[in-house]
Write a structure and sequence with these properties.
The complex is a heterodimer of chains A (141) and B (136).
Chain A lengths: L1 E8 L13 H16 L3 E6 L7 E4 L6 E4 L11 E6 L3 H9 L7 E7 L8 H21 L1
Chain B lengths: L1 E7 L2 H5 L5 H16 L3 E6 L7 E6 L2 E6 L9 E8 L3 H10 L9 E6 L10 H14 L1
The chains are: A alpha+beta (141), B alpha+beta (136).
Chain lengths: 141, 136
């Protein structure tokens, strides 16, 4: 089972473009990331620039409309994520609990759809897509 | 530059209603176009928040709360990660995505940090080593 652990840092919705995490927090997080990697459960992880540097596209009436960040009405935003592969929901919760997060951070854990959830046809199409994505990643790195 | 196109949750996605065949087909075509352009790195859909949990941290204490979570508009239903040359290119691709919502779908575009953004440090070097091993 794959789970996405979404890091939601309070106040990040108002962070200035170019804001970086504190180096001490990065070092603590690094140790945690290494433990995930050593246990063989880590599939990927990333940090997201503040929403002030981002944009939203809404599709009301079928037409895409772009709004630049920051988003005044946002109450919470994602600051980063981990993708993990584990055997159970319990294992996902245990890993998330071990994160050296601070008091103003929340982690949301969400299971990821597998192609099989959508039926055999989609599963087949996804296998082809995954192969191409792998090729893109190899070509880029 | 890598960007994450975050598909925001809708009432349907939060209710666990699978998208109609028409939307799945349109999304498949869109992602095939991304592949053909050589910009697609990853994409996934998330199960509704009612099947998820949140963990809040207070000192050494952790509190676990079961989903669903109230603010549907702030929740995420899925994401697509692309590698492009500019923010404008990311926005162009974002505008081409099929409307992911029933009527008024929304996606959020956020640039991903690259390790070089953090400058040089021992901790960042360890990240670099880990990325190499993850890619294997």
């Amino acid at each position: 089972m794959r789970f996405m652990m979404l890091m939601i840092p309070k106040g990040y919705e108002k962070a200035e473009p170019g804001t970086l995490p504190d180096p001490k927090a990065i070092a603590a997080m690094m140790k945690y990331n290494e433990e995930l990697a050593k246990a063989g459960v880590l599939l990927g992880l990333d940090g997201l620039h503040p929403p002030a540097a981002g944009a939203r596209v809404s599709f009301s009436g079928g037409k895409p409309k772009v709004t630049d960040g920051p988003f005044a009405e946002a109450k919470e935003v994602v600051g980063g994520y981990w993708m993990i592969q584990v055997k159970s929901k319990q294992e996902a919760i245990e890993w998330a609990s071990r994160c050296p997060a601070s008091d103003n951070e929340t982690i949301e854990i969400r299971q990821v759809f597998e192609a099989a959830d959508f039926g055999p046809e989609i599963a087949k199409e996804e296998r082809v897509l995954l192969k191409h994505m792998e090729e893109n990643r190899t070509a880029i790195s | 530059m890598r960007f994450m196109l975050i598909v925001k949750a809708s009432k349907d996605s939060e209710a666990g209603i699978m998208p109609e065949e028409k939307l799945i087909a349109a999304m498949a075509t869109y992602h095939e176009d991304l592949v053909k352009a050589g910009v697609l790195l990853d994409a996934s859909g998330l199960q509704p928040s009612k099947k998820g949990w949140r963990i809040t941290f207070s000192g050494g204490k952790r509190t676990i709360t079961d989903g669903p979570f109230a603010e549907t508009k702030e929740l995420i239903a899925g994401y697509t990660i692309i590698q492009v040359k500019s923010r404008e290119e990311a926005l162009e691709w974002a505008k081409r995505m099929p409307n992911p919502g029933e009527k008024d779908g929304e996606i959020e575009i956020r640039q991903l940090f690259e390790l070089d953004d953090f400058g040089d440090s021992a901790a960042i070097d360890r990240f670099r080593e880990m990325e190499v091993s993850l890619k294997k």
